[in-house]
Amino acid sequence: MSVNTPTPFRAHPAEPGASGIPFARVPPVNAFHVCGALFAIWAVVVSFLGITRESFPSTDGAARAVGLISVVLCLGAIGTAIYTSATAEHGSEEEHAALPGN
Questions:
Q1: Phi and psi at residue 26, to the nearest 5°
Q2: Which long-range contacts does 35-43 make (Cβ < 8 Å, 24+ apart)?
Q3: Is-contact 24 17, C-beta < 8 A?
Q4: Contact between residue 76 and residue 30 where contact means Cβ atoms under 8 Å apart
Q5: What is the pTM (predicted TM-score) of this model?
Q6: What are the pLDDT digits (tens) for 13-62?
Q7: Pick from 8, 28, 6: which is nearest to 17 by CA?
C-alpha cells in the first residue's frame, strides 16, 4: 500500500464495542424508554383523533377504553421511571470525585 492510500478503520478486537456491527453503539433501552414512547405515541394518536373527529370517542364504552388505556400507560411510564432510577447503577465515588467542581 502506498502512503496516500486510505485504509478502512477497524476497531481492535480487544476494545469494548468493537463487534464490527454498525448498530452496536446504540445505547441500551430500558422499560421506561418503551413505556414513555408508547405513552407519547398514544397521546399523539388520541389528540389527532380528538381534533379531527368531533364525536371522538363516540360511545361511553369507547370513552372508558380510551381513559383506561391512558391511565395504564401513564402509570406504566411513571412506575418504570421510578423503578429504573431506583435500580440504576450510579457512578462510583471515584468517578464522582473526578467530575469538575468536586
A1: -70, 130
A2: 35/73, 35/76, 35/77, 35/79, 35/80, 36/77, 36/80, 36/81, 38/73, 38/76, 38/77, 39/73, 39/74, 39/76, 39/77, 42/69, 42/70, 42/73, 43/70
A3: yes
A4: no
A5: 0.64
A6: 555 555 556 666 767 889 999 999 999 999 999 999 999 999 999 999 99
A7: 28
Q: How far apart are CA 15 and CA 13, in angstroms?
A: 5
Core vs surface per residue 17-45: b (16+ CB within 10 A) or e: eeeeeeeeeeeeeeebeebbeebeebeee
Give the position of cell 463487534.
19
Rounded CA-CA distance 75/84 in Å is 14
